[in-house]
Specification:
Two copies of one chain form a homodimer. Chain A has about 550 residues and is of the alpha/beta class. Chain A folds into two domains: about 20-25 and about 50-215 and about 430-475, 3-Layer(aba) Sandwich (Rossmann fold), CATH 3.40.50; about 215-425 and about 505-550, Rossmann fold. Helices cover about 45% and strands about 15% of the residues of chain A. In chain A, the strands form three sheets. A nine-stranded mixed β-sheet of chain A has the order 1-2-13-12-7-6-3-4-5, with helices on both faces. In chain A, helix 3 runs parallel beside helix 20 (about 435-450). The first copy, chain A, is globular. At the A-B interface, helix 1, helix 8 and helix 19 of A face helix 1, helix 8 and helix 19 of B. Chains A, B: One of its GO terms (molecular function) is 6-phosphofructokinase activity. Chains A, B: It is an enzyme of class 2 (transferase). Chains A, B: Its cofactor is Mg(2+). Chains A, B: Pathway: Carbohydrate degradation; glycolysis; D-glyceraldehyde 3-phosphate and glycerone phosphate from D-glucose: step 3/4. Chains A, B: Its main location: cytoplasm.
């Protein structure tokens, strides 16, 4: 395998650990916990794993006699920078506990556990992947561990391999399922512990005890590098508005963090749009006004950040989508009538069938997008919101709005657009120093939780805006983060998703600045992630964390 | 102005200069030059600037008494990383010649000269922009300096400011025009010299004396960072083919360099497609075969690099586009007939009007693309080739081909695609160490050429695969790089564009490897540009240069 010069040098990096994990470790139990909501229901659903105490680690002089632990690790869901360091942290951690400990990796995600596909992760393999991006060491996958049959199949291989524990590295859903699995194995006395690790570039798995999910730091740094480069281009050529869509369906943490780093002219935050019940027209007006104001100053250029999931946060779009799903549901009379129509007549007919409000929204859409909404449907017959090119939708609608404004003299400039979508560019970047350290510490923490016999815990590393040696490592019962939510029509216990808080410090800071950033050209150019060099450049974490912890 | 932590640290970087430029400099004249072709015509067109000798610089102990020089600088055309360092190199160079030298920057490209828009570039301004990306210090523009009226307007302001020289930083066209301007000012004894600097991320301004254009190194490093990250994602998720289009209409140097750095499964080189007279169907077959072969090994993922200009290099597409331009030319009877047709009947009608070959090609195109070719036309009524989303065109056609192969059992896998286009992401990145040094040296070289009274020269810095102190600085008469080419129906003297040479070392090396890269998964992950750290990581230039100079 050829590797790049950077990868070669970066392999030598020794991730920093919290002081408490550097020698012998003592576990300290804290207070008993409760779930964030719906305590009664959650306690009933998790009789064996509810109400457990928070735990933290402290350094100790007393070296305990420890047994080898055998661990299976699973990467679940979308890639995030640092996954390989979680695994190398687990490896080093269990080897430190006992040199005869063994680590197995299940291949291709949770499916590997069910299908008994695995490899033993030896030091030769681990060393090749230290401080690298990607999940390619064992691959990832999106199989959901939800059924007892899967749990039982998993237990077979766990028994065969003599596993003490499984570590599941995933987002909120995967960690919810990890907890259900922990509860099931505890209930049947399977003798297999389950520990979760908080992963997602989206940044929406966080709470009081989990300050950030890993990968968010690196991914937002990559996107901010590119946004900064594009801003510099915009400010040099002075002829385009760049509409940049950023990956992330649920929350706008990525957009907010990138905005704090780069200071673009426009940043849409889905949570704000939902809270203010903004219409698509209002969002477009907001953007068009900023474009027009800048044009008044002779600046016919700018940069706008758009969260991928925006459409689903606009109340009237949600309603429209629901109505379209009903109207065109497979096998209905209306769907048959729709299909009989000539293509050129369909959109008009659809508009006539919708409620007055939805009809108005539908008629406002550029015809290509309107057609897409009626044609591109998923296997369940639903509108495929993820296929909508939100950045182009907004670009076209802003153009239309500016044309109207031009006619009445409210816009005198030019409006040319370039579109971008950043997602895959950042999910597998080599982890920043922060993510390299954080992930390694999470993995190491997981190994200690296992050695201490814990199950149903998520590895937790806090105080992350301080230097790594001051970080506080420990574990949080997953049930503590849960509440009951409706999923596919049924109430289910799930980890509460962390959306952007409109009264949180990061958003409030952003709001205090966005006016200046819109009118002025206050672009900041963060440049690429640096791995060697001054600590001010290499070791900073996110603006979001700094503001949250300030 | 807020600046990022990296920008703050990077401002301290002192670009490296060739040894010959570090103290007092002696100019050494080399051999008289001839143009690469059409010597007679070029000599006649450039009586004052043809046949001048190559010049190079040497260190000397004899400090010459030098006069202040006043210089105007112009950034022309698309952005390229390092433009600000050319300007700071000129600034430091002329200040070194005499502290009373002055530098003026014309605003918004060549238009600034004609319209007399300029600023004086003082050390305060220069210091803010050292080692930064972008052209925002004075802006760039695409006005072409081609007419004597423009030259005369330029001379007015040059006289007002007491300029000894203009430095034009641009690509092949801008440098051609710089030479025409040099010739004109020499002819009328205007007393204003003109010096060019070789800029373009496309890498197509190079020859024996100009080893590389600035910006190519940095831009290809940024694109390779992103390609590497996407490759790692592809190899982790194992479910998508990523089709990545790379900026650059004329030459495929960018794609070739990125391929050498990252080893993707497929890289299309426009020059090869043209040389082999490949059809669109053949290109699609080539890609589909690689997809099918990888699927046979269970690998339903991969990465393909596609040069932006590909379509125009496919002979049958060129013919098709010409026929469409004739058929639908404004005001023709056929255009009127076309416009009277119902939209749904237009493509069929167009196919019927074309030659048999073109009709076949047109019918092969996905209908959306076919429609785009007939509808989206520029102000001259021509097909807008640049609007064609080549990556999607190929993706859809490969899909269709694979569906056919599936029916006869030649393809048994899955084919899902993600599309990307990288261009603006890299044009304004902060320059790599190589580009920071190279650009600064080019600017410094320009100042010496000016002080030595030269005009019609391009700054040249060679031996660039050695350490910077070993670089050879000097000047090359622009006429040496010229030949006669047809432009808008007339023969004109222009700098010969450097396309990828199919018998050159970089392409031959690529060909020797691409089979392995297609079948295997030999991805290399270069990671982001590093500015601090080991020289193996920070100071390497392009694979193209290394292979060319080996």
């Amino acid at each position: 395998m050829s590797i790049s010069a950077l990868q070669k040098e970066r392999a030598k990096y020794q991730p920093k650990l919290p002081k408490s994990l550097r020698g012998d470790v003592k576990l300290v139990e804290g207070e008993k916990t409760e779930s964030v909501a719906d305590q009664k229901e959650i306690a009933e659903l998790f009789p064996n794993t509810y109400g457990m105490p928070l735990v933290s680690f402290e350094a100790t002089d007393t070296a305990a006699e420890r047994q080898p632990v055998n661990v299976g690790v699973i990467l679940s869901g979308g890639q995030a920078p640092g996954g390989h360091n979680v695994i190398s942290g687990i490896f080093d951690g269990i080897k430190n506990i006992h040199t005869e400990s063994k680590l197995y990796g299940f291949l291709g995600g949770p499916g590997g556990l069910v299908d008994h596909k695995y490899i033993e992760l030896t030091s030769d393999i681990i060393d090749e992947y230290r401080n690298t991006g990607g999940f390619d060491i064992i691959g990832s996958g999106r199989t959901k561990l939800e059924e007892e049959a899967q749990f039982d199949k998993g237990l077979e291989i766990a028994k065969d391999l003599g596993l003490n524990a499984l570590v599941i590295i995933g987002g909120d859903d995967s960690n919810t399922n990890a907890c259900v699995l922990a509860e099931y194995y505890a209930e049947i006395n399977a003798g297999v512990q389950v520990i979760g690790c908080p992963k997602t570039i989206d940044g929406d798995l966080k709470n009081e005890m989990i300050e950030t999910s890993f990968g968010f730091d690196t991914a937002t740094k990559v996107y901010s590098e590119l946004i900064g480069n594009i801003q510099r281009d915009a400010n040099s050529a002075k002829k385009y508005w760049h509409f940049i869509k950023l990956m992330g369906r649920s929350a706008s943490h990525i957009g907010l963090e990138c905005a704090l780093k780069t200071q673009p002219n426009i940043t849409l935050i889905s949570e704000e749009v939902a809270e203010k019940k903004q219409t698509l027209g209002e969002v477009v007006d907001y953007m068009a006004c900023i474009v027009a104001n800048r044009a008044n100053d002779g600046n016919n250029f700018g940069v706008a950040l758009i969260p991928e999931g925006l459409i689903e946060f606009i109340p009237e779009m949600k309603v429209l989508i629901t109505e379209l799903n009903d109207l065109l549901a497979e096998g209905t009379d209306t769907e048959k009538e729709f299909k009989m129509l000539k293509k050129s007549h369909r959109n008009e007919w659809v508009a006539g069938q919708l409620s007055e409000t939805s009809s108005g929204v539908f008629s406002l859409l550029p015809s290509g997008i309107a057609t897409q909404l009626t044609l591109d449907r998923d296997p369940h017959g639903n509108v495929q919101v993820s296929l909508i090119e939100t950045e182009k939708l907004l670009g076209e609608m802003v153009k239309t709005r500016l044309d109207e404004m031009k006619e009445v003299g409210e816009f005198t400039g030019k409006f040319g657009t370039q579109y971008h979508f950043f997602g895959y560019e950042g999910r597998c970047a080599a982890p920043s120093n922060f993510d390299a350290d954080y992930c390694y510490s999470l993995g190491y923490t997981a190994s200690v939780l296992i050695s201490e016999g814990k199950t149903g815990y998520m590895a937790s590393v806090r105080n992350t805006t301080s230097a790594a040696d001051q970080w506080i490592a420990g574990g949080v019962p997953v049930t503590m983060m849960m509440n009951m939510e409706k999923r596919h029509g049924h109430m289910k216990p799930v980890i509460q998703k962390a959306l952007v808080e409109l009264d949180g410090a990061p958003f409030k800071f952003f709001v205090s600045k966005r006016g200046e950033w819109a009118t002025g050209t206050e672009f900041v150019y963060p440049g690429p992630i640096q791995y060697f060099g001054p600590t001010e450049v290499c070791d900073q974490t996110t603006e979001t964390l700094k503001l949250e912890q300030a």
